[in-house]
Amino acid sequence: MDIGEFKLALEQLVQDAERDFAAANTPDALEQARVAYLGARSGRLKTIQKQMGTLPPDCRKEGGLAFNQAKQRLQQLLADSQQRIKSNAADSGPQIDPTLPGYRPHLGTVHPITQTIEHLMEIMGRLGFAAVEGPEVEDTWHNFIALNIPEDHPARDPLDNFYLTVAGQAIDDADAKDARLLRSQTSTVQIRVMENASPPVRVISLGRVYRPDEADPTHFPMFHQMEGLWIDREVHMGHLKSVLRLFATAYLGSDVQIRFRPSFFPFTEPSVEVDFQWNGQWMEFGGAGMVDPNVLRAVGYDPEEVGGFAFGLGVERLCMRRHGVTDIRDLYRNDLRFLHQF
Ligand code: PHE
User: Which residue is closest in CA terms to ligand 1's atom 4?
Assistant: First the structure.
């Protein structure tokens, strides 16, 4: 082989390699091209190298030079293609388009009872009632005695209340002066408010109450009440009925039917039970009445000077009526499929 043919073969080799390395788009294809051109045993460069020995001796130096240039060129082509394939792979990873509108991850929702409490506070706030709070662990004075509930009243029965222990000892004497219990009604807050403020008083209190009831679709051992209290010089039954009617239509809609039935509570006289209509049926939502003079006296008010009304409504019932929930237990199962709907 003469030097001219040898150089021509090298040129042809470089040209073919340029084409084949450029065409390789995957690591596998590039590896195939590498073996074809630079393979140590039978690559095309190796084949040409073997022909170097057939050159006339005075051309070997020129031939070696040309061979080395071609070899370097091939190695460069290989490196370029490796780089190109690597950066292509990086580009095809997960792509982010910053111009697309985002979507909000699910962060959870406010519990339906908390939503209801906020809604009720807003409605009653518009009617001039300020929201106040009281403790859930109460003493017998605030839960019973000041509310005119005598010692032998069945409402004080240990079987109907969650009495707590005092100094590690179970309270079996529910009449003990220092007996503590989980409050069974929010009427306790009436007493606390009146003990600490002089009339006029216009407040609501929303919070948990506890009764050892068997859980069923309409009962749960813990539930919420909205207590209302309005004491002033001339508050009468007409105010009570107007406030509850305004409240009911604001929360349940203008078509809601409301009814008052004569009833009895130790802390109100006269007393009524408050019913709303639900699916054509009357259902009790709570109790109300004119605050009993004994209660006013217990907190140091003069029943000859001031008086007013109190009411206590079941928050769960209101929430259930508004949202069509038929089982109170659904509110406390912590089933996200239920809660996400609110
Ligand atoms: N505390 C009563 C109950 O839990 C409701 C009520 C409150 C009745 C205020 C009259 C006045 O059943």
Answer: 185
